């Protein structure tokens, strides 16, 4: 089994050390670099061949949001996922991080086992977006509509719009399938097709597109 290559980005040395010990304790993961600033994180992402960056938001030199944006915009880093660390619903920058290309967000005081599961989830290509926190954050901080990267909701079928609305509420493929009476494979196919039509990087980007395009309205969750 190929280990998940994790890059740690946090300006606090003790925090990085704690995360490094935890990640290295998992048989399916390894730490391939540690960065104290966002600029270091971007540079190491390019040289360490990391699969995932565990990214703090508040860092000197270049913050986690800008670092995430640079990583997401780099074609050579297309396979690198970013999992953002947040102080939960007090951190309004989470939405900006998702817009920048992060695949999800994680509470800093998450239990160790949940952190490892989160890394596995994001590394596997799924967005880490639990329904409650996602809904609250989007509703509170998404105020300025912006056009999707390529197409808009008008390019989606009625079924695809329904799938998108459920994804925006944090449902995974199995839950979407159950809600719509579909097979998990069909739900996954719909999600992939929607991502292609809307030019979304991953499921986290679909959440942003859904709210910005009006498929889901903040406050009506």
UniProtKB/TrEMBL annotation:
Residues 5-123 form the Response regulatory domain. The modification 4-aspartylphosphate is found at residue 56. InterPro entries: CheY-like_superfamily, NreC/VraR/RcsB-like_REC, Sig_transdc_resp-reg_C-effctor, Sig_transdc_resp-reg_receiver, Tscrpt_reg_LuxR_C, WalR-like. Keywords: DNA-binding, Phosphoprotein, Transcription, Transcription regulation. CDD domains: LuxR_C_like, REC_NarL-like. Residues 149-214 form the HTH luxR-type domain. Gene3D superfamilies: 3.40.50.2300. The keyword tRNA-binding does not apply. PROSITE patterns: HTH_LUXR_2, RESPONSE_REGULATORY. This is Response regulator.
